Amino acid sequence: MCQLLGMNCNAPTDVTFSFRGFAQRGGHTDHHADGWGIAFFEGDDSVAGAGDKGLRHFVDHQPASSSPVAELISRYPIKSRNVISHIRKATQGRVALENCHPFVRELWGRYWVFAHNGDLKDFSPRLHGSFRPVGSTDSERAFCWIMQEMAKSHAGVPSVRELSITLRELAAQIAGHGTFNFLLSNGQALWAHASTNLYYVERKHPFAHATLSDEDVSVNFAEHTRPTDKVAVVVTAPLTTNEQWTAFAPGELKVFEDGALAAA
């Protein structure tokens, strides 16, 4: 299975520490060596109404643990409120750039980013709108169907709560075809759905030390944060050895806003 990493914050934050350990799972501490990708939402706070609409998107079909692009990301502290990353273990679709997650589409004037961990069987929905897969994965096909159905369900831009209700219904339909762990963001919130393995941690004041599970690296978050900062991290398997990670229940969809778990 693939590996997922998502981050949601109340202020622009770099994902360098978490990504450094996560990338090691792409062919070094684990066997997920069929490509990887990461997307950062960014905005211009000086422009009224801009929000986090901008997007930096990197994918590579090389293993994350040895990819020069991944090495660049691990050393370049891009700051973002919403980040999604993925390490691929191919089940459907060849090893190629067009099959690397996360995938990106536009809806209601915003970018949407999606990454999936799992394997969907006999999932061939009718795609009759503007959303069509470029690659050959079940994951991108599921993303296109979700985007199509969301566009059909809402005439205009819905609230995060309304989107969560729609996504729960759509995720349940897709999950009937197999394992459907996914991360989704539009720069405003981070949605996470679990069929099997998914965990989250919320980091806030007072911040403490954390040590990576996949590399002998520690950080004291108190030295890099403000008392008002809040950060939520979602991952397939816990990234650190000394933080309290909470497991998702099977079939559960959670939404994170401003670095914290939002009300259901």
List keywords for this structure.
alpha+beta; 7-stranded antiparallel β-sheet; 6-stranded antiparallel β-sheet; 264 residues
Describe what this molecule looks like in 3D:
There is one protein chain. This protein has 264 residues and is of the alpha+beta class. The chain has one domain: Glutamine Phosphoribosylpyrophosphate, subunit 1, domain 1 (4-Layer Sandwich), CATH 3.60.20.10. It is 18% helix and 32% strand. The protein is built from 4 helices and 15 strands. β5 and β6 form a beta hairpin.
Strands of the widest sheet, in order across it, are 3-2-4-1-12-9-13
Shape descriptor reads globular
So what's the CATH class? Alpha Beta
The portion of residues forming beta strands comes to 25-35%
SS elements, strand count: 15
Stretches with pLDDT under 50, minimum 5 residues: none
Q: Compute the number of structural domains.
A: 1
Q: Give the name of the CATH superfamily.
A: Aminohydrolase, N-terminal nucleophile (Ntn) domain
Largest sheet: 7 strands, antiparallel
In a few lines, what is going on in this structure?
The chain is α+β, with helices and mostly antiparallel strands.
Detail the topology: elements first, then pairings:
Layout: E1 3-14, H1 16-23, E2 36-42, E3 54-60, H2 68-75, E4 79-87, E5 103-107, E6 110-117, H3 138-153, H4 160-175, E7 181-185, E8 190-193, E9 199-204, E10 209-211, E11 218-220, E12 230-235, E13 246-247, E14 253-257, E15 260-261
Antiparallel strand pairs: 1-4, 1-12, 2-3, 2-4, 5-6, 6-7, 7-8, 8-14, 9-12, 9-13, 10-11, 14-15
Helix pairs in contact: 1-2, 3-4
